[in-house]
Give the backbone structure.
Amino acid sequence: MTSSYDLFRKLDRRPLGRQAFSVGFMLKAPYFATVRPWVLDMRPHRGEVKIRKRRGVQNHIGTVHAIAVANGMEAAMGLLAEATTPRGMRWIPKGIRLDYLAKVTTDVRCVAETDPADWDQGPPFEVQVRCTGIIDDGSEVVRGTIPIWVTAKSSSKGASPTASSAQEKVPATA
């Protein structure tokens, strides 16, 4: 678990805490501000955000754009990964595979989930994060996976966070 998860748990108990965390989340990863994810849940094995249907995320037919939903899925996955990755380890997404099942006609909840057994292996390893998008009537409109690569953090002081040994490099996807 990371300091971001610790911060979420602290703020979640306070008035306007989720709003403050959601803004901080967008400041930490500015690209997510394009879809303005509202953080609904962050805990080990689960992340959930809500993307409001608004003009800035709509496509030419007035529904939420597929890539906006993909950004919401990645935001939810990031929350899950931050809350689940053990201390001393790091994660990075390897890709995204999504099936768009229906038009996204309302706000959409983007949910990312894993099982404890998915993380029960030594580094380096890959975790398949399951993602789903659900609209206001409860219909699933998007489904997929985001594979993440989990490795041990470098133990050398002064090394950049992106520095990695040959063993820790993300393997090519087949």
Observations:
- The first helix runs from residue 3 to 12.
- The helical segments are 3-12, 17-28, 66-84.
- Residues 90 and 151 are 6 Å apart (CA to CA).
- Residues 158-168 have pLDDT under 50 and may be disordered.
